[in-house]
Design goal:
By secondary structure, the chain is mainly α. It has 16 helices and nine strands.
């Protein structure tokens, strides 16, 4: 507790709200401490004032499960918590686009109805700029409080900011909040730029369900061997997070049935033996079955693997003419084991 030393009666001429503000700012007779945000900033306050304004804080301080003097609040950052306190102490509402999402979350968490209504109105009428730091919170607020206009703004922002680095998080949140059009756009982006997207370090952080959905696409433009190597890297990452040894057995346990989304039959036998058979990600039985499929000795339908052919979007080469010069592309036909020199469609990033 801190008492401000002054010969003047600071209360003179101040309203109740102004006295509360002064005591909060100068930590006079404070009896509870909050550790706010990721950095655990120290914020001192008064139980009586907070309990009189919030039923949740009342139960926190005076209920059967009352908490200790120091209370951690990791899910609200200091600027938003400061706005909450000023409202509880003085009725002040000081919202801006940087804090409004956090304040709405705080008001909802502590059941402060008037502040919650004020933030919803601000989101509805205010010119709130959505950015990388606020977009997920904005989606949460728009979905929970049925703010359709704001929801469209956040969806539009995500739509325009899909990159190799962001596409996985955008896709996961689009699925979470039921944004079907945005989910479809993410899938199309990953289909087209698969070879680059899977090189992003953020790809290793996706959930298993997201991974399986992406690999189920028949339009993914990436070689199956690269998908297989990515799966192993993803499995190693999961082992590291969970403190497991990065053995083939543990990696396979993490990958699970996602491995059945790899179209192994589109590898040639030599590639399959050198890259797949030398490790124990697949069982011996699965390796034998896939080898038989690759050489044509077993019906594909008798296995649990996906044998659908991926069909990435075709892009026609530009034919460059300079006098009599014609730039041609070499086309290799694996089935007929021959090469043609001709201008042909090619797979992007192939």
């Amino acid at each position: 507790m801190t008492e401000v030393k002054t010969s003047k009666n600071w209360r003179s001429g101040l309203s109740v709200a102004e006295c509360n503000r002064y005591m909060l700012k100068n930590e006079i007779h404070s009896d509870v401490t909050f550790l706010v945000g990721k950095e655990e900033k120290l914020v001192r306050a008064h139980k009586y004032v907070l309990a009189s304004r919030s039923p949740v804080l009342d139960a926190m301080f005076y209920g059967d499960l009352a908490e200790a003097k120091k209370i951690k609040i990791p899910d609200i950052e200091p600027p938003s918590f400061d706005v909450l306190l000023r409202f509880l102490y003085c009725g002040d509402i000081a919202l801006n686009q940087d804090t409004v999402i956090g304040v709405l979350y705080a008001a909802d968490k502590y059941d402060v109805d008037e502040l919650k209504k004020a933030t919803q109105l601000f989101l509805y009428w205010g010119d709130v700029e959505v950015n990388n730091d606020t977009v997920i919170g904005a989606l949460y607020a728009a979905e929970k409080y049925n703010l359709e206009t704001f929801k469209k703004a956040t969806e539009s922002y995500l739509d325009k900011n899909i990159t190799n680095e962001t596409v996985f998080s955008v896709f996961a949140n689009a699925k979470l909040f039921g944004l079907e059009a945005l989910s479809k756009k993410c899938i199309e982006f990953m289909n087209e730029k698969g070879a680059y997207v899977f090189q992003s370090p953020f790809a290793l952080e996706i959930s298993k369900d997201t991974l399986k959905e992406i690999l189920s696409s028949d339009n993914l433009d990436i070689e199956e061997l690269k998908i297989y190597h990515f799966l192993i890297s993803w499995g190693e990452g999961q082992c590291e997070v969970k403190g497991h040894e990065k053995s083939d057995e543990n990696i396979r346990n993490q990958i699970g049935d996602a491995v059945y989304r790899v179209r192994f039959q589109f590898m040639d036998l030599d590639m399959f033996v050198k890259n797949v058979c030398r490790r124990n990600i697949l069982t011996s039985e699965d390796k034998l079955i896939l080898q038989q499929v690759i050489v044509g000795n077993l019906e594909k339908e008798s296995t649990k693997f996906n044998f659908g052919k991926r069909k990435p979007t075709l892009k026609v080469c530009n034919v460059l003419r300079s006098g009599s010069h014609l730039e041609s592309w070499r086309y290799f036909d694996h089935k007929r084991r021959r090469q043609d020199h001709r201008t042909v469609p090619y797979w992007k990033h192939h």
